[in-house]
Amino acid sequence: MNKYLPTIGIEIHTQLATKSKMFCGCDNDSKTAEPNTNVCPVCLALPGALPVINKGAVELAIKLGHGLNAKIATHTSFDRKNYFYPDSPKGYQITQMDEPIIQQGFVEILIEGEFKKIGVHHAHLEEDAGKSTHPAGASYSLVDFNRAGTPLVEIVSDPDMHTPTEAKRYLQEVYNIATTLGITHGDMEHGNFKFDLNISVSDTDKLGTRTELKNLNSFRNAERALKYEIQRQIDLLEDGEEITQETRGWNDSKGITVSQRGKEHAHDYRYFPEPDLPPLELQVDFITTIQKSVSSVVLPIIVRRELSELGLTSNEQDILIGQAKTRDIFNDTTKILQPKLHKKAVNWLVGDYQAWMTENSEAKSQLTAENLTDLIELVEADSISSKTAKEIFGEVVLGADPNKLIADKGLTQVSDDTELKKIISELITQNPQAVADYQSGNAKAAGFFVGQVMQATKGQANPGKANTLVLKLLEAHTNE
Ligand SMILES: [Zn+2]
Prior knowledge:
- It contains 16 helices and 15 strands.
- By secondary structure, it is α+β, with helices and mostly antiparallel strands.
- The protein has 3 domains: about 5-285, no CATH class; about 300-410, no CATH class; about 415-480, Arc Repressor Mutant, subunit A, CATH 1.10.10.410.
């Protein structure tokens, strides 16, 4: 049913990797804390407690703006979004409605070999709520305010995506940007990166009625949920029914979206300027200094462009960009390895290294850019064969220096003419039949000698060199 065009917009909530919370000095890391221990009068909203803007959160927002190709507002302000829910001690959330810190920007994604820009409408600073739990069978609920006041940036995209795959790629790209720049720890299991997906379908120029899929935290599920929801909406329209504007949730085990509640309209929240916080005026110098501090960070899109030029598939690119540690190794390697050998680094990292991590674990890896570079250059200089390189790779991943390793093990490839010539001459004397075969025009006989040379040197002869010398000496022998 191609006549319906889906339109997707995304709101991403990313928790910032600051030391303290958004408006108070409480520790921003509550992973191992007992419930309601990382709290204070400010984040519990006790009467008379006043919020103070976390400078570190503002700095991270500025850095993120750089990654999102966006301008930073020099004048920005906070608002109250009023709602009553037990996990919000204030009865409202401090957020930014009219004057967000990050203005219009864009993110580039790679779709079917083409780069496509997805607009970022804006991104704003706000605080997270506490966490309610509903113990099974209990007649009560529990609330933990440790998370209340956690700094968040909400990134609001333009409705520029039209397929679930585009949406997934956008999410992955923003995640890669945010983690590369150190904005967030990126721990998706712990809610560091959550998103709401707005989706509508239409067979006219006008956008259809949209539904919002709330609170997803997996790229794969975002793609699945969108596929399901697009089909659900198309089926309804085909049956002559209407789409209800509503919030829906994703039921992972059933693989379906389910209605949660009717959509609140913006005025339900009675937004008004936050009276306890003056507008935030940022000096241009301050913004420039923060942006400069991340200007040398290699953003994912730069890596993706380079990988595209190297002819890597999307999957190979995703490995290098999506695995933070592998990506760092690659980035560092490209800084010291000559450009024409970058593809070799890619081959190691998406090939043997992935296999090694499957058998062992990334936590055990001590692979460094220096050691990987040395390994590649040793092969390139014919000091070791590719076969030897593969054999010692496991030890290199565990932190061994390839130069030291081959010296200790005597693995240096034999490229020395005199030594190879000596071996070949002996072989010619010992194998008169093979020499006769060669002389009668059997080219395979030369291959036999090369094989013998490799065996005699335990695979350490340079095969190219061995081949050249074998032919040369056989010719010389024939002409004697
Ligand atoms: Zn606090």
